[in-house]
Specification:
Blueprint: H1 3-21, E1 32-42, H2 43-48, E2 55-57, H3 60-73, E3 79-93, E4 96-109, E5 115-129, E6 132-142
Parallel strand pairs: 1-6
Antiparallel strand pairs: 1-2, 3-4, 4-5, 5-6
Length: about 160
Amino acid sequence: MTPDLRAEIQDLYDAYAEALDDFELERWPELFTEKCRYEAVSRENFERGLPLAAILCESRGMLEDRVAALRRTSMYAPRSVRHLTSHVRASAEGDGFRVRANYAVLQTRVDALTEILSAGRYLDRVVRDAGRLRFQEKRVIFDSVLVPNSLVYPL
């Protein structure tokens, strides 16, 4: 893996975090290929091979629908979120890359201290699409079996 390619993969992860943290949700689906998979599943279900996911989207259109729903119907207390991504590791696989990274998402509500919303790992497939790297598959494996009621928001 060349340093330039490693930097390009890191840029994709940084753009992902920025789109969500800055609440520029319309940028989020653009980071995925047209035919893609976004899945958020508990570590327990993942390790047992159980298919139940807290969030499952199987195309960029489904991601765009989630954004539209968040913009139009979400009723929740104002908050800010921060995605922290570390230990990004990538290896070539076919026409793309398998990438693994740790993540933590912090949330701060106006009337409360900052708290951990979710922590776990990303298991992703990244490919070059239309001249740039995009997620073809993003599996968010969250460590806790408890799911926060605000998990309508992407991790």
